[in-house]
Amino acid sequence: MSKLVERWHSSHLGRVVEVTRWGDVGTPVLVFPTAGGDSQEIERFQVVDACSGLIADGRIKIYSCDSVNGRAMLTSEGDSYHLSWILRRFIEFVGYELVPAIRTDCRADDIEIITAGSSIGAYNALASLCQFPEFFAGAICMSGTFDVARFLNGPVSDDFYWASPVHGLDRLPADHAADLRTRQVVFACGGGANEDIGASWHAAHVLGSAGVPNRVVEWGPEWPHDWHTWREMLPLYVDEMP
């Protein structure tokens, strides 16, 4: 399959971000890395290979980008106010820089994107959908970590509530909330080692209380918080998305 790697200096983040694409045609799927991952992490861990049939059939093309905010949380970059700022600016980078780049690459100014991710990537997928529902058809959130307040360890600013769906969904503008109610979210989580299905149920409750369609799919205890779980999940739920 074809592969394209691009880098540019993000005006929102003030640093260079790498973006990778696999495939040539089809519905764009934006897959966020795990916490400290780069744009090619999903290729190294065979997630792209797991979706190769869908790519070869021209049904999807996959994009990924560096997990800038995930790295910042993982390394405790700056204080809690700085981390709140990075959380927001990364999601703004997605909406104002990455989405236009994907649409240009697809030669379609109005194409809707499926967003996905595992662990912290699931948080980024959900946050991107909630802030920019006009750009995304839905989110596939695998083994998600959604309450990112535990990474900040201190007081937070309004940027945190803007970027955290489980804390600030009720602050969305009315038009965003209305758009979001026309989208769908899948929360899939295993029951094996290091999984926390409670995080998915909590996020699902927050969304459901706001009228956002979603479902939680509990996989069995044989599915841990690991890459082989996500290799099975992603092509299954991408295939179900409209």
Tell me what you see in this structure:
With 242 residues, this protein is of the alpha/beta class. The protein has one domain: Rossmann fold. Helix content is 43%, strand content 21%. The chain is built from eleven helices and eight strands. The chain has an eight-stranded mixed sheet, sandwiched between helices. Strand 7, helix 10 and strand 8 form a beta-alpha-beta unit. Helix 4 runs antiparallel to helix 5 and helix 5 packs across helix 6. It is globular.
N to C succession of SSEs = EEEHHHEHHEHEHHHEHEH
Question: What's the total helix number?
Answer: 11
Biggest beta-sheet profile:
8 strands, mixed
Compute the number of strand runs. 8
CATH topology: Rossmann fold
Average pLDDT for all residues: 96
C-alpha Rg, in Å?
Answer: 16 Å
CATH homology superfamily: Alpha/Beta hydrolase fold, catalytic domain
Main β-sheet, spatial strand arrangement: 1-2-4-3-5-6-7-8
What structural class do you assign from the helix and strand content? Answer: alpha/beta
Domains counted in the coordinates: how many?
Answer: 1
What distance separates the N and C termini? 23 Å
Residue stretches low in confidence (pLDDT < 50, at least 5 long) are none
Give the fraction of residues assigned to helices.
Answer: 40-55%
CATH architecture: 3-Layer(aba) Sandwich
